[in-house]
Amino acid sequence: MPMYTLGLIDYTNVAPLTAHLRDLEGLRYERGVPTAMNAALLEGRVDLSNISSFEFVRNAHRLAALPDFSVSVLGPVYSVNLFHRRPWAELSGQRIALTSQSATSVQLLRVLLEASGVNAVLERAEGDAFTLLDQGYAGVLRIGDDALREWYRVAGPLGERDSMLTLPHQRGDVIVTDLAQRWYDLTGHPFTFAVWAYRRDNPPPAEVVQMMREARRAGIGELGNVARSRAQGMGLPARVIQHYLWNFRYHLEAPDKKGLARFADLACPGHAPLHFGDL
Ligand SMILES: C=C(O[C@@H]1C=C(C(=O)O)C=C[C@H]1O)C(=O)O
């Protein structure tokens, strides 16, 4: 195989898909946050990567996606959160801090605010949710592992016998709104955060896709081990990580595509038709 570069957004939510990726001759890996991998794919530095679904939609004229890979959820996601002190409906005219790691979640937030008639001031600002709230932001958008940890500071602890579903959404005056849950409440659809995309003129070799499918089967098949190995680095109980992981829909099924199509129309009106490869 000629040199081929596979990009990886290295968040815990993709660990079941990446834990068993193998080395193939000519294959190299490049890791980064979503906005870094979006740019790497569009600029030709990686050949195939999980990227923000919004960037896939925005560049639908030149990209295609693997037909059966996604990071989607139906209902809560736990790691794409708006942290806020005032109720959601009172965020009009208030400043909300956005992470520069995200493309999709920023657009999801815009869509959800607009759907409830809230007109907030969105600004880029880095830092953990609690620090930014203390600095005067009325809301802070966080994604990925940091968002999961900060959610647990609000919602935890989860006892051995507790269910994740009964954890609180508020501690003191800090409220956490899970954006995927809010999307579900609004539309009844799953939400697709990431797809595995490539430039249409550069489809992936079949052996790479085959290896990725084998890795996914192995990773999902031993989710408990994947959760335990990620839990240490995350500083969270393995049972929290395990629930977090099995909650994802990793196969881009028909309901996920419907949700993605709805998001595409809301976030990027006039986009080109979405193209899924026949691989
Ligand atoms: C579920 C998540 O989804 C990620 C969010 C992304 C974005 O906001 O652009 C991109 C890729 C996803 O893997 C998360 O970050 O927790």
Automatic annotation (TrEMBL):
E.C. code: 4.2.1.151
Record key words, sorted: Lyase, Menaquinone biosynthesis
Protein name as it appears in the record: Chorismate dehydratase
GO biological process: menaquinone biosynthetic process
InterPro entries found in the cross-reference section: Menaquinone_biosynth, MqnA
Organism: Deinobacterium chartae
Known pathway: Quinol/quinone metabolism; menaquinone biosynthesis
Catalytic activity as recorded in UniProt: chorismate = 3-[(1-carboxyvinyl)-oxy]benzoate + H2O
GO molecular function: hydro-lyase activity
Homology family: Belongs to the MqnA/MqnD family. MqnA subfamily.
Function: Catalyzes the dehydration of chorismate into 3-[(1-carboxyvinyl)oxy]benzoate, a step in the biosynthesis of menaquinone (MK, vitamin K2).
Domain of life: Bacteria
Membrane-spanning segments: none
